[in-house]
Structure formats: C-alpha cells, structure tokens
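haha ok so turns out i had the wrong file open the whole time. this is the CORRECT one, sorry everyone. sequence first:
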Amino acid sequence: MNSIDAAINKAKARHRIAVTIVVVLGTAIILGYLSWLFLVNGFKVKVLPADAAATQQFRFIEGTGFSRGDSVFLLGTTGVIRVSADKYQAQDLRLDVHASQVLEVELEPMPATVVLTTEPAHENMEWWVDGTRVHTGATLTTTFAPGQYQVAAQHPYYQIAQQTMTAEIAGELQQQLTLQPIAGTLQIQTEPAGASVYMEGSLVGQTPLSLPKQGGDYPIEVRLDGYQSVQDTLPVHRSQPTPTRHYLLQPEQGQLRVQAEPSDGALFISGTPRSSPASVDANVEHLVRYEKQGYISATKKLTLAPGEQRAIRFKLEPEIAKVNVTSNIPAEVFVAGKSVGQTPLELSLQTIPTSLEFRKSGYRTVTRNITPNARQTITVSAEMLQEFEARRKEGQPLFVETLGIQMLKLKPTAFTMGSPRNEVGRSPNEHQVQVDFSRSIWVSRHEITEAQFAQFKPGAASSNLPVTQVSWDEAAAYTNWLSEQEGLEPFYVIQNQQVVGFMPQARGYRLPTEAEWEFIAKLANRASPTKYVWGSTDRMREQQGNFSDESRRGQQTFIFKDYQDGYAERAPVGSFSANQAGFYDLDGNVREWVHDFYSVVQPATSGVMMDYTGVAQGTTHVVKGASYLSGRLQELRTAARTSGRQGEADIGFRIARYDE
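then structure:
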C-alpha cells in the first residue's frame, strides 16, 4: 500500500469516529429532552403582597428542582419549597403534581422590635397596649406587628403616661416615657389632739396635721406623752391622693398576770372579759373579778403604773346548794356514777351541771340533768317505768313490730275446750276442760316466718314462709329473746338451752296456751264454739287453707280429692283468708306448738280452770292445727291435737303474751 492509500484509509477512520460521536450526542440530547418532557413538572407561584413579590426567593427544602422567575420546576411528584422575601417572614409551600399547578402564597411582614422605658424607672411599672395590660416591670421589650398602637405606662405614684406609636415592617422602636408625680396631702388627726408626727425620725408637725406630699408610701410615727405610740404607713396614690387617718390613742399599759384555782374560769377586768396575761391602762383603777360556775366568785381592785408588771392570785371556794330527790317508787340514786342513797333523800351538791341517775332492777334508768341553785332548794323527781311501759309511753314501736309481727289483742271468755264424745272424728285425747280467763292477751295474727326467726338465729333461712324444724324449746327461747328486746320479764326459765319452768305472772312473750289457741280458732267473734275454723259444717270451702291437695296425690295416703289450694308444701303466711277474729292459717299451712304439756290421760280438773296452762308436767308438748300434710277432715277440727318436742317439717308456731 502506498502513502496515498494509507492517507485515504486514515481519513475514513476519522470520519467513522466523528459520525459515532454525533450519533451518541444526538441520542443523549433526545433522551434528555424526553426526560424533561416526562419527569420535570412546572408550577406557577404567585407571591403576595406585591412588595414581597419584588424580592421573592424560592428554595427547595424537600425534593429536587429549580426555579426561574415566578416558576418552579419539580423533578418528581412531591416537594416543599421555602418562599422568602426581604422584611417578610418565610413560609413553606408543598408541591404536588396531583394538585393545582398554579399556587398562591401570602407572606406575613416581619414585626417591629419595641423597647420602652420610663423616667424615673420603677420595677412595678404596668405597661398597657391598646387597653390591655401586657407587662409589669421597668422595661417593656416586645414586638409589634406593623400598625399604630396606644401605649400607656401606669404607676400608683404618677400620672398615667400615654403615647401613640407607629410600628414599621421590621423596624425598631426605642422610647422613654417621662412620668409626672401626683400631688397629694397627708391628713392626720388624733384623739386627744396635740400628738407629734415623725417621718423618718424627724418631727414634721403636730396633730391635727395637713402635710402636702407627692406620690409615694410614707411611714409615720405618732407620739404623745402618757399614750402608746402609733406606727403606720400612709400611701399617696393616684387612686387616693389624700389619705386621712384618725387615731384613737391608747393610754400606756401595765401588764397583769392572774393565777387562779381552779383554772379555766372567767376573768373580767373592769367588766370586760380578758385572758391572762392582760395589758391594762396605766394610772387607772381596775376592778378584777374571777369566777367559775360552781364556785363563789372573788374580786380585787388595783392600779398599775406605766410599764408595771404585777401578778395576783385567786382561790375560789365551792358553792353548795340543797337538792330534794324523789321518785314514784324507791330507786337508787347515782351522782357521777357513785351511789348516794335511795329515794327520797336530800343532797348537798355543787352548783354545776350535774347528772342524777335513778336505777332499779327491771326498770328503765332515768337520768335528770340539773344545775343546783344556791339561792333556792330545787326538787328533782323521776317516774320509774318498766322498759316496756316506757317504750309505749314514748310511742316507740314494739320490737316485734319492727320484725313485721302483727299482734291482735283480745279478751277470751269462758268455754269448754276439747270435743264432746259424740263429735264425729273425735280422738280420745281431746279432753274436755271448762276454762275461763282473767287477763287480756295479745296473739300474733300469723305464724312466725323464717325471716323473723332468722333475726334470733342468724344463718337460718330468711323468707315469708312459716319457720319449721324448730323444737319446742327453741320456740320458747325465741319468745324469751323477744321479751328481752322489749324489756319485758321473760316468761320461760331456761337452763342449758332447755325450759325448766315458767313465770305465770310474767308479761313476756310466750307460746299460746292450748285453751287460748282453741278460743281464737273456734269461738273468738262467734256466738258459739264451732267444730272447724270456718264453722261446723263438714264441708270446707274452696281455698279454705293449705292442706294436702291433689298436688300431693301419690306422695301420701290421704289427700282431699278434687281440692286445689295452689301449694304442694308450705305457703307464705297470710296466703289464705283470716278467720272471723283476724287470725291466719289456724287450720292449715303448718301445725303449731302451744305452751301446754301433752297428756293422754284426762286432766284432774274440777269446776272452771282459770288461766289454764295444761297439766303440770310431761315429756312432750301439744301441737294444734293442721298442715299441708293433712288430708283428712278430722285432722282439721279445732279440738284435734297431737304431740311432739323436736322440730318437724310441718310444725311452726305463733306467739302470745299477757296484756297486763
């Protein structure tokens, strides 16, 4: 190859390189243009106010982009720019390609810096701007938004200094307000007049005194021979430029200390109650009196020199009075817990509030509070009442009433208890006894409920069903408990949880006697005795009571055919109608304990038995009435009787007591 060919080949190589470079550059330019078209987003930003727009600047603080004039270009979909201008506060603006691409932002002007002082300066200066207190202190340093303001400086010693100020954008306000002191006058008077007035140790005049002063607080001292000095501070303020004082000067004092026996009495100096030690006017005679209730008071006269200190002593003697003490029956009298004798008696007591107690076994204690009087003899009387009578006199409810036990009072009359030999269904144990009654009685209208018995025996069932599974001794103990709650003498004598006797004259609660039970079942409010609670017909009415009805068919041998009373077992007390005398469940629901011992042998009685309580002894007790287990008519007769001692599922009880 010659030199000409080599030159030609070299030229071709250079041409190929140039063409390649042009192609690459062209491709890059095309790609950049396409990126511009597809990746860069433009926004138009309008800045307000116009003054701010003149110096507006945009700076990206989130995202990437650039600005040109009032346009901003964002590379991506979101970003944040900070918009700023001279003398305006910068504001951040969020860019989002999915939102409007024409944006508007209004910049707030920068506030003016304000520094205000007064001449003279005061730390408790109050600064007010447009009628609002904004600061207390010698200097007000703050900022004002551009505009006009009414500024005031207030201090009690000076007139109010006010000025109108204009704040420019990003400006500075430094100003000193000159204060003018207020003019006032101190007006000072004393009684007596002629006292010297000192200010900062220098005499400024004598009272009455009128002293001109500028605003301020002025400590003064007022002095007059023979009188105590007075120290005070008089304010000359804008709201009170003329303070006026009228001082009632007090004489110079002496010091009196009183020691007294007994202590805690009342001390009077010249008729005025005082305490020890006491300051008293010097050079004046004083009457000092010491007294205490129950003692003879004592007095002393004295005069103290100025500044003198003196101690005096009193020892009082007890004051004694006569008191006559009586009561309707002899009772033991106690004073301060100590027995002093039995009424009637005469006592010598100190003339202080005294409590007398009248005590007697079985009676309510009576307390009488008195204050004996030495100038006359007083008489104290007490009416001694047994607890039961005391409660009734006071109108208090009986304890049984608080348990919901309703009692009915009646006066039984003479009748023959038991059944005649020709009575159909009669049992041989239904002995006939002629009985009569000397005392009225109270009997509960209902059988005692589980809830009422649970008050005596906590933990027992609590409902309105009649209580059962209670032995005769437990029932008697319940009646004694009721008596104790009402202050009545218990009827039964109980030892080791067993009844060993009873008190026939006691008015405490008890079980009804068999004679009483039969009276209210067959004769109360009737012209003649009846065979059944409802009468003498051998057919009972519907819903007569809770007996063994069709619901117990198949559970026991005897039931009342075609009879339905709604209860297979016990019913709540009072679920059926009362008898003519007002008593419930005498013929059904549960059988009932009565007081009497049970005997199958005819009692040895002759004539009429008064207040009959049954045979004198036995091992079991009479059970009266029928129950929800009774399925034969003969068991419903008022004369029917069974016996027992331990509790059973269908035995309950009701209570009674004598009225007097």
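The two ends are 167 Å apart (CA to CA).
again sry for the mixup
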